[in-house]
Design brief:
Layout lengths: L1 E7 L3 E8 L4 E2 L4 E4 L6 H14 L6 E5 L3 E2 L2 E2 L14 H9 L3 E5 H12 L8 E7 L3 E7 L2 E3 L8 E3 L2 E2 L1 H4 L1 H6 L4 H19 L3 E5 L18 E4 L6 H12 L4
Helix pairs in contact: 1-2, 3-7
Length: about 250
């Protein structure tokens, strides 16, 4: 089945048509930068640009960086606060004139990795972290998704969440070299390991393509691997989610 997958991030919106039986993108992805924080109507218009770019007329899956319950968005840590409490499905369907299904963006990335990528065929507990503007997380047990885990917002220090210290953006903002940042990331992963006992940790997001710069500094019990889909995981997983929600 062919579905348009769209991944909303903190600095850009990306999308591409996906063949959901294989996880392959059917065209070069379209990326629209969003350097400023856009209110819901303006961000929905950006999503509409991507739909128009592909002249898309079918179903759309959208990964959103926040807690998503059905059609409703409950949190928006790195996007506009007006998204909180918003009926996201209606917002994006009005902008695109197409049927839309919403899912947490990290959950979308996890779905892609577990079905087609680094977590394929793993029966135990698998944790995926997307390290970009913030930290997204997706938790799977026996292949089943525990939705909206949001482990990047684990309270860390001085009342701030972990993503303020360990995300890809934090590494740049705090001017940390790869070894310093990997030390912080190891501490964070150690806490998650003590709570969740994952057998595999998949690192995705913007820094996954640079894993050779820091993986050798990580100290973990679980095996740590880079996401196979890199920055395309959210697009593929959003399409997979929409496929699974047909008729919902």
């Amino acid at each position: 089945m062919k579905i348009l997958g769209i991944d909303i991030g903190g600095s850009a919106v990306k999308g591409a048509p996906v063949e959901t039986t294989t996880g392959q993108l059917l065209a070069e992805r379209c990326r629209v930068a969003t350097p400023t924080v856009l209110p819901p109507a303006e961000l929905a218009a950006v999503v509409g640009e991507i739909v128009a770019h592909f002249r898309w007329r079918g179903r759309i899956g959208i990964g959103f960086p926040g807690v998503v319950h059905g059609p409703r968005i409950l949190t928006s840590a790195n996007l506009h606060p007006d998204f909180i409490g918003c009926d996201g499905r209606t917002l994006f369907e009005q902008a695109t004139k197409r049927p839309v299904n919403l899912v947490n963006d990290a959950d979308a990335a996890g779905l892609a990795e577990v079905k087609f990528g680094a977590g394929r065929g793993r029966p135990g507990t698998v944790l995926l972290l997307t390290l970009g503007t913030g930290i997204g997380s997706a938790l799977f047990c026996g292949g089943a998704l525990y939705q909206n885990s949001e482990l990047g917002h684990l309270p860390w220090t001085r009342g701030k969440s972990a993503e303020k210290f360990m995300s890809g953006a934090a590494r740049k903002d705090l001017n940390l070299d790869w070894e310093e940042w990997a030390g912080r990331l190891s501490d964070y992963l150690g806490v998650l390991e003590r709570i969740l006992w994952p057998e595999l940790i998949i690192i995705g997001g913007g820094v996954s393509a640079k894993h050779r710069k820091y993986f050798h500094f990580l100290k973990t019990r679980a095996k740590v691997v880079p996401a196979e889909f890199l920055n395309e995981a959210g697009i593929v997983g959003a399409a997979l989610w929409a496929e699974g929600q047909r008729g919902a």
